[in-house]
Fold this protein.
Amino acid sequence: MFPYCKLKEEDIRAYLPTVTPEQVLASLYKTAPTFSDFLHFIAPAALQVIPQMRAQARIIKELHFGKAVRLYAPLYVSNYCINDCVYCAFKTSHRHARKRLTMDEIIAEAEVIAGYGIQSLLLVSGEDPKAMSVDFLAEAVRRLRRMFPYISIEIYPMDQASYRKLFEAGVHGLTIYQETYQEDLYKTLHRHGPKADYHKRLEYLAGGAAAGFYNVGIGALLGLYDWHIEAVSVAAHGLWLRKKFWQTKVQFSFPRITPIPGGVDVPHQVGEDELEQMMLAFRLFFHEADLFISTRENHLFRERVAQTCASHVSAGSQVVPGGYRAADRKQDLLGQFTRNDRTSVADVDHDLSGLGLEIVYKDWDNCIGV
Ligand code: SF4
């Protein structure tokens, strides 16, 4: 469990099966739901009232976001990694040719993404500071800011001074997944490398918020553990961050494990209905929070959640360094996960617009400060 969560796992396990659909419905229409209401939303009984949850989540989402859905795209700059997470294709023990982009290659990839109309960029890399130094990343960000008004990062954790350097270069969002909040399980999945330290990893987001990032993103890798318990930890982590860093917005992602080369055991499979339930629960509890959905999920599912709960949808994503340029796609490059939605940006725009949603490419610009 998230260490500062006051609930105990055994109490949550005992409570959730006792929740009735009537209790879920009673929680659904509260203007200020409590954490007990959140528990009702993730309880098994909530699966019986999903249509009502969808309808209410849609009302809440439209109240805070209107019909808007933000599109973004990841740019993978390196797949070198010094950690050995058993569930990830980038793990250091996976023998495969690696690639880190040069500055020119980063700009070339970015030009392809910008050509799709994307203006919100997520810079992603494996966790290897030697492959991607802070100074190199800062220079890349300074150049990329000419093309993208909003840049966030999902790279390796670093100290506050380094985060500040990236913030001043133009990064405004930071994502670090704890992967699982179950400390014992965490230790078995992350035996080597800096990521092995569970508590230290948790602290980095606070360092990022203190460094000035406007948005911090969190999430658990779904499939590693019982999603109900992880959902409680993610929500508790979000509340904790919000309380400590009220000036920073907390964002939530819901990555499910997808197949990787060599295969990976998924000990706690999360079905599509459960994933939707979890996302609805977060919308119903965190009314104003940004909820992200990536191309790990299929197109129809992404369309469904974009209408009710997801505020940010990735589009046209490539998950290998150099993947956006057609020539590189022919190479055997190492991607981080399997994409289940390869729809182009134009088609994502077309399909979501057809559902009455308003596609937003740019909702952020600097007018003061960095
Ligand atoms: S999850 Fe992150 S840290 Fe772990 S192997 Fe993959 S890229 Fe490296």
In short: The first helix runs from residue 9 to 15. The radius of gyration is 20 Å. Residues 36 and 333 are 46 Å apart (CA to CA).
